[in-house]
Amino acid sequence: MRPRRHKADEQARIDGYRQTIERYLRYVLIRCAGYTNNKAQVQRIAAYTLAMACLLLDKLRGQAELGSVVEMMIRIVGEDPRGDWRLDADEGGEEITQRVFVLNERMCEVAGTINAVEPLARQLLILHHVERLSVGVLADAYGLSVDEVGKALAQGGGQFIEILRGLSAGDDGTEPDVGMLLGMLADCIDMPWAESLGAFALGYAVEWKEGGTL
């Protein structure tokens, strides 16, 4: 019976890894847009971030701590002083096919705006509007009340609109639709490539765990 139990535990762990990557993949890519749009550079940031989130999954208490780990890893790898990960580092040096996002001017503004929003609000906005997690699911995951999540989403949406209006030279005074704009930004991702990246991160995390590294 022990081998069967071990196999079940192993499958549950891998399923947990897979769910974490599926939930945070597009979030991580959108955050990476604050550093670079080059696929090779994004792969480095995202693979380390997603794999570490998986490996620490059973050591964390809830989604809030997991979100903090994701933010920390993105900053550590994205701001690595040993390499230049800024957006302008790959201008002119790579073909357009090597970019994660294909962005027009408006979507560049949206990417810059969401990356300037306060971290918790940013997580909730993307998970709600892009990953379609309900307010109730977010409240349970983050250990907050439904009212607290609703308030955070409203405040984050307000911050998003204020920042976006400051960035946009062509603001016509109409109220931007935060959910629609974030959905349009997510649609700019090269998803076949992103899904391959997610599979790579999953395999990377499983190999490290099986090797007893963490």
Which segments are poorly predicted (pLDDT under 50) over 5 or more consecutive residues? 84-96
Category from helices, strands and their pairing: mainly alpha
Query: What percent of residues adopt helix (DSSP H or I)?
Result: 55-70%
Question: Over all CA atoms, what is the radius of gyration?
Answer: 18 Å
Quaternary state of the chains: single chain
Mean pLDDT: 87
Number of domains: 2
Specify the biggest β-sheet. Answer: none
Q: What spatial form do the alpha-carbon principal axes imply?
A: globular
**How many helices does DSSP assign?**
9
SSE pattern, N- to C-terminal? HHHHHHHHH
Distance from first to last alpha carbon: 26 Å
Give the total of beta strands: 0
Strand coverage percent: under 5%
Structure description:
- The structure is a single chain.
- The relative contact order is 0.16.
- The two termini are 26 Å apart.
- The chain has 214 residues and is mostly helical.
- 68% of the residues lie in helices and 0% in strands.
- Helix 1 packs across helix 3 and helix 2 (39-55) runs antiparallel to helix 3 (63-78).
- The chain folds into two domains: 1-101 and 190-214, no CATH class; 104-188, Arc Repressor Mutant, subunit A (Orthogonal Bundle).
- It contains nine helices and no strands.
